[in-house]
Backbone:
């Protein structure tokens, strides 16, 4: 680092030319967010409030926050990157890989979470399976949060880089400092408010982006024609998927990486639709916490279901812009044809992760551009802050309080939490460099979910419905499932045992983790002693009285405010979308 | 917010802190800025394919922001004088709480 700091920060050629009005829009947003945070913070009284902000919010607010908490790195950049690369089949992440699991979470699983009032997944593990499973899960959850925080930080840094042109390592440190001040200034104590605001800002910027892009291409048929022409003229070496595969959701070979259409459908439905997606949505407490802040069991159950409605239309705001970038933005077009255009948000060459930013540069006038930048920065910042706070909860309560320093007052653990926040932010700067090594962050994220969430889901679902499952089976299943997935991934990546393009490897790893976890859990249960039924009330379906998992007022609501009818409407709509595309 | 347990039947409107007012205000401010940009700023019609995108987005944002504030005005949220922190332990799962039961809705 021979350069002096002023030389590094000197003005230089930037990817995006933001004007004064764009920075004005950005500063108004942060004034709002920090203002609400400041007001909310004055009311924080103890740790329960700190993490769940009370149980007082209506279902539409928690439902939008639920979606918004997830509308960060994964959705916006990952989905547009994958959309640019393979087109329509990316929608499976939503219509197969999210909606069914969200409905299942609302209808079946939420009553347990809300009723047992656990603050985190590890806490549920502790009460259902005891300490060994709890410790294993707490550590793996904490590690996963640090790795995912790195993805958010990397994307946040790449936007700062695109705006200011600073070197990547400087922007990563600056971005980490921004997130840390957001958390310390109270931004997170109003997380749910911010997430709802952020949802509207993102929609307000991505919707015009999609509409203007379609206008320039001559509508949907124009987009289809351009993609067909581009696929026909692509050099064979670039392995661009044929236009028919890019423009139809099924059988989705471009996504799964299988040549056979039947295997592809099985891979998507079981690997993505069942294991990865149920694993992600039903055990991801960054999102589940949003539902815990609602005002009744009924509202908690409706939270993911209300979230499912906007969720099913998010592809039109993320994947479609990605597809448009591949035909409107010359750099992405070259990249797709196997070229290596220079520049990009990281400064080390354009990647698919840049699709959305480059489309914004080419399509949006200043003003709307500022709104778009605000939405993206807000999403990544809130996403990373949510990961860091989840890490903080698990580290201070599940690891530190349970195994290291016990029986101290609440203030002590809040202090530990603050230190954990700073440490996690520093570690995220390093995990961000790992994320930067993947040309499409979606591949990386799905791999992580396969390692951590798939076995967790297997243990959860067995533990909830099979009362005989023993404490030893709990931890043994988790450990062996995770190790099996990691082993398979290493064998493919480094051992050269087999290769799968697209995200097929992540699907296979996740499915393996699930099957190994179930097999080991069943085997271990046969040889160890189950917990007495009296300790399983509220944790296992058959041992929980019906009154504990239903809302006494539910039947008095009109149908559109009841959980199951709403879920059915969502299901019918998502099936219709699958048929239409 | 205090955790002293009063009878807590008195209620007041959420007013400015109603999330619908905050959403409405933010969207309306953005609407005004974009509207002004559309009228007086660089319209960048080469990028948008000939549409005054800022103007249209500004109008839509103003309308949506206004609707949120109208909704908050028409159906105000009532906040109980005493807000529970972690009540809802009627089913007795053994969590120590300081709040007691929740007000019935």
Residues:
């Amino acid at each position: 680092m021979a350069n002096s700091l002023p030389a590094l920060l000197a003005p230089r050629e930037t990817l995006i030319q933001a004007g004064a009005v764009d920075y004005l829009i950005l500063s108004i947003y942060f004034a709002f967010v920090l203002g609400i945070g400041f007001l909310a913070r004055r009311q924080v009284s103890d740790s329960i409030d700190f993490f769940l902000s009370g149980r007082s919010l209506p279902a539409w607010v928690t439902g939008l926050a639920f979606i918004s908490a997830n509308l960060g790195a994964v959705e916006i950049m990952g989905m547009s990157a994958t959309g640019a690369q393979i087109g329509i089949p990316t929608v499976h992440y939503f219509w197969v890989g999210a909606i069914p699991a969200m409905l299942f979470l609302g209808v079946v699983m939420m009553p347990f979470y809300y009723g047992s009032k656990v603050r985190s997944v590890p806490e549920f593990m502790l009460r259902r399976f005891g300490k060994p499973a709890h410790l294993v899960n707490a550590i793996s959850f904490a590690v996963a949060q640090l790795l995912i925080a790195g993805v958010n930080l990397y994307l946040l840094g790449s936007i700062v880089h695109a705006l200011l042109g600073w070197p990547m390592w400087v922007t990563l440190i600056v971005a980490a400092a921004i997130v840390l001040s957001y958390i310390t200034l109270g931004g997170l104590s109003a997380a749910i408010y911010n997430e709802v605001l952020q949802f509207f800002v993102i929609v307000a910027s991505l919707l015009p982006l999609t509409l203007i892009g379609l206008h320039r291409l001559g509508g949907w048929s124009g987009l289809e024609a351009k993609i067909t022409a581009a696929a026909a003229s692509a050099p064979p070496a670039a392995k661009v998927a044929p236009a028919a595969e890019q423009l139809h959701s099924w059988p989705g070979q471009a996504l799964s990486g299988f040549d056979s259409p039947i295997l592809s459908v099985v891979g998507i439905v079981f690997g993505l639709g069942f294991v990865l997606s149920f694993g992600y949505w039903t055990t991801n407490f960054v999102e589940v916490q949003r539902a815990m802040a609602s005002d009744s069991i009924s509202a908690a159950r409706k939270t993911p279901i209300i979230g499912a409605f906007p969720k099913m239309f998010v592809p039109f705001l993320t994947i479609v812009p990605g597809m448009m970038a591949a035909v409107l933005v010359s750099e992405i077009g070259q990249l797709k044809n196997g070229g290596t255009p220079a520049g990009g948000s990281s400064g080390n060459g354009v990647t698919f992760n840049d699709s959305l930013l480059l489309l914004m540069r080419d399509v949006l006038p200043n003003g709307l551009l500022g709104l778009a930048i605000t939405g993206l920065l807000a999403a990544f910042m809130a996403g990373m802050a949510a990961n860091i706070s989840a890490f903080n909860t698990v580290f201070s309560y599940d690891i530190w309080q349970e195994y290291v320093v016990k029986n101290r007052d609440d203030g002590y653990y809040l202090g530990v939490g603050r230190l954990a926040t700073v440490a996690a932010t520093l570690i995220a700067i390093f995990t961000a460099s790992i994320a930067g090594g993947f040309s499409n962050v979606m591949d990386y994220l799905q791999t992580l979910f396969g390692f951590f969430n798939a076995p967790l889901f297997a243990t959860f679902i067995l533990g909830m419905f099979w009362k005989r499952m023993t404490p030893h089976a709990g931890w043994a299943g988790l450990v062996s499932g995770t190790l099996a997935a990691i082993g398979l991934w290493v064998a493919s990546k480094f051992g050269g045992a087999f290769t799968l393009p697209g995200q097929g490897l992540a699907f296979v790893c996740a499915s393996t983790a699930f099957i190994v976890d179930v097999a080991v859990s069943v085997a271990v249960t046969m040889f160890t002693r189950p917990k007495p039924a009296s300790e399983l009330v509220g944790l296992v379906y058959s041992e929980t009285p019906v009154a504990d998992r239903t809302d006494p007022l539910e039947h008095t609501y009109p149908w559109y405010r009841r959980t199951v009818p709403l879920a059915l409407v969502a299901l019918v709509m998502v099936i219709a979308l699958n048929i239409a595309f | 917010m205090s955790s002293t347990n009063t009878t807590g039947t008195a209620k007041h409107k959420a007013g400015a802190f109603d999330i619908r007012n905050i959403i409405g205000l933010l969207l309306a401010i953005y609407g005004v800025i974009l509207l002004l940009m559309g009228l007086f700023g660089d319209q960048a019609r080469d990028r948008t394919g000939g549409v005054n995108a800022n103007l249209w987005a500004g109008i839509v944002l103003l309308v949506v922001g206004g609707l949120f504030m109208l909704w908050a005005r028409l159906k105000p949220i009532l906040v109980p004088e005493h807000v529970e922190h972690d009540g809802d332990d009627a089913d007795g799962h053994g969590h120590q709480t300081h709040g007691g039961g929740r007000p019935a809705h």
Residues 44-53 of chain A have pLDDT under 50 and may be disordered. The radius of gyration of chain A is 23 Å. Chain A is about 75% helix and 0% strand.
